[in-house]
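User: For my dataset I need records formatted as: sequence, then structure tokens, nothing else. Please produce one.
Assistant:
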Amino acid sequence: MTAAEFLALHAGPGFVLPNAWDAGSARILEHVGFPAIATTSAGIAWSLGVPDGGALTVDTMLEHVGRMVAAVGVPVTADLESGYDDVSTTVRLAVEAGAVGGNLEDQVGGVLFGIDEAVDRVAAARAVAPAGTFVLNARTDTYFGGVPGDPFAETVERAIRYVEAGADCIFVPGVVDEDTIRRLAAAIPAPLNIVGGLANLVDAPTLFSLGVTRVSLGGSLARASLSFLERAGQELLDSGTLGFLDGAIAYADLQRRFGS
């Protein structure tokens, strides 16, 4: 699937975009049947034993993105955080790694960029990866990090400016109220991406009914996997029993799934 075909998913009734953190998790999600996969910067960081939030260099992050791209036959869109030190270079490297799209945040360390600076960063990303060649998902943390005043008005203003600068999709994490999600979907002149499983536990069908186009999971699948690992380890330590293996995929089945 090309970037144009991935973008076409955003014109449909809505789709779920799961977030992988390594080549193996990407292969499993492809096997399940998802038409596209996103990466999660949080999951990649945790898989390397460090916290989320800028602990990894852009080269390290995109090395892992490239491994995921190489492991699957479906398109991969990359979590590019805030674009690291140079948005243009980061997007160019993401394209070279084979990503068909990317998220671009408008904050660092929980502090929002001024709206004009954030717009310039979206425009810089679009200039490196022209429309139709890369699906640019502009993320605003107006709800996730909080803003003084009315977050709804600030979100819509930023979203409109980001779309005018070239964004294909607008990502608003941290929204939990269904009415607010419905109002955002109606007010934003582009497909709306809402993350499920973080602050928001609304299921995907409900989000689609509210006007959301793209439902991603962020680090939720990675968290679930690591939570299971912790529980399994605790069972082994406490009792030495193997109950955690109930329902586990057989070795031979995994071998087949990871085969060429």
